[in-house]
Amino acid sequence: MKGVILAGGTGSRLRPLTLVTNKHLLPIYNKPMIFYPLQTLKDAGITDILIVTGREHAGDIFRLMGSGKDFGVRFTYRVQDEPGGIPQAISLAEQFVGSDKFISINGDNILLRQSIRPFAEAFQRGSEEARILLYNTTVEEARKAGVAVLEGERVTKIVEKPPQPPTTWISIGVLMFAPSVFDIIRTLRPSARGELEIADVQNEYIRRGTLAASRFEGEWMDAGSFDELRRANLLAHSQHAGGA
Fold it and tell me: What is the number of domains present in the chain?
């Protein structure tokens, strides 16, 4: 199975820091942010990894990450010319993925205290075409995310950024797909935000009956704003200090 790290976007919520460098190179305690999703993939046994980055500050990503030799992995790179949503970024991985299943992880997603390896292995063995990870958060955070509508353990719909979330279980930026995802992405149309929405991909797999969901019980955060960046630094520091 292959891995994809999405490290594009403009990082507008973190300006002026992101006027200087790529958001995913900002520090989370003692290492750059992008090292965390990289470690998540490595812990899942994935060493063949595509990094999708934007045109701005792409050189900073290349200089830091290199070929992957220093990390015990192999990197391939694709440049996203302009932000167009997560599905548009994932579509750039089609040639890299080929006929393999893969895991896409957002470059600002920090996962601690639990490995995704059991979920990845279940997806690799299983017949489902997509698997998402759910995380139980606050109502306030759910309003800013893709929220899972649940019937027991089954996800019946993903609702994007609802004012009144039906649950506080959200789909985080760790997405497992079969290559069929690229055909789905080709059918999508931009939302009112002018971007392709990952919820539309997930809902298509729900409609087909081929989406599975697993609950992530570790620590997760999306370090895409100043408050989240601070919280990620504090959590990473506490884990390092505790030797976890």
Answer: 1
